[in-house]
Specification:
Elements: E1 3-7, E2 10-12, E3 18-25, E4 32-39, E5 45-51, E6 58-60, E7 68-73, E8 78-83, E9 92-101, E10 107-111, E11 115-119
Length: 121
């Protein structure tokens, strides 16, 4: 079974940093693209960052470019989100998402439980 476990959230002051981790099992990163997605209170899900299957390509939403960095260690099946210069607007539940290719040629999304990040003084 595919499992995704996000961790590393917590309370941080504005301007601070956190690193989120997502430990994955049940599939290989070579067959998946990984994303970090967040949901702020009262708002819709928002994709933060994407990394491709071999870690050679990343993409970020404009609001976090230059502040957040997604990375992965494929042999550990772990993806990270380094978050710097955090702002109160970054307060949200952060989710790890795996888009895994299927033998039929499509793909399927899997989600883990989120980790809460609160940015406040």
């Amino acid at each position: 079974d595919v499992q995704l476990q996000a961790s590393g959230g917590g309370l941080v002051q504005p301007g601070g940093s956190l690193r989120l981790s997502c430990a994955a099992s049940g599939f290989t990163f070579a067959n998946a693209a990984m994303k970090w997605v967040r949901q702020a209170p009262g708002l819709e899900l928002e994709r933060m960052a994407t990394i491709n299957s071999d870690g050679s390509w990343t993409n970020y939403v404009d609001s976090v470019k230059g502040r957040f960095t997604i990375s992965s260690i494929n042999h550990k099946n772990t993806v990270y989100l380094q978050m710097n210069s955090l702002e109160p607007a970054d307060t949200a539940v952060y989710y790890c998402n795996a888009n895994i290719w299927t033998p039929e040629g499509g793909s399927r999304d899997y989600w883990g439980k989120g980790t809460l990040v609160t940015v406040s003084s």
